[in-house]
Amino acid sequence: MCAYLSLDSEPNGKLSDPSNTPSAIPGNIGVMRGDQRQDYLAKQLHAMSLPVLLIQEPKPAVFKTCSLIVAPTPLTKDKKTLTGHPALSIEDFHALLCPGQTLFGGNLPEQTRKYCRQKKITFYDFMEMEEVAQRNAVATAEGAVCEAICASPINLDGSLCLVAGYGRCGQIIARKLRGMDADVTVMECDEKKQHLAKKEGFPCIQSHALAYFLETNSIQFLFNTIPCPIFHEGLLKRTPEDITIIDIASAPGGVDFAYCQTSGRKALLCPGLPGKYSPKTSGQVLCHALFLTDVLSMTNAFKEVLI
Fold first, then answer.
1. In whole angstroms, how far apart are CA 61 and each of 22, 84, 86, 249?
2. pTM, whole model, 2 decimals?
3. Cα 31 to the center of its chain, rounded Å
């Protein structure tokens, strides 16, 4: 028989901390706390009668009871510590992993991949799974629009918006903004993505035309999805002081935030939007992704609960 950790709420409204639970046996699914996505993921696995531990404080004794570790998504926001665990460095997290385990996480850095290969730890990156990446983009786009609405004193309806980057997230952001009757222009350098943007009816510019575009258009909202420093002081000076900038690119983002702060321009770096605005849906997506890999059905400890 497998031992299951109860995830029922305690009187203080917090989930039980598994670090003091002695009933765990090898074969648990260890879900590390990150944002609320992880909480909903753990609840769903528990509802399926799978042996799950919701790990608040990562400790070797807990990790050793787990065959599968689900780390936060993204694994790290600052490239130094784990998301949701500011006192846990990436190196210390590596030391907790055991050979033979399977690791899931989002945007796994190369140093983590290298460590897993050396220690014979199987790893999967959620963001390299097409279904997860697409659903994550939807949640991110919705969150970006919410951030813009909350941060600005004007309506999106009728506003002039620039979406920088027409990848997964940029495409959905542009479509949602158009659905709210905003005037949307896309900036994209990739020819195929330019063609797609134009095919969908969006005016499209390239980076070399950005300065002129900002000079001749009073942009009210800027949504950046490009993870490189594109919007420097020279470009930002050409934008209105009351612009609202939402940057969803990986840290440190693509905007000169220091200049925005000194010049009074409102600019927000917004990582982890799915966990903030749609944690239940996003947790369900991650849960489904675990089964897409067949890892659970291949792990001996889970066979009796899957039959």
1. 10, 20, 20, 36
2. 0.83
3. 16
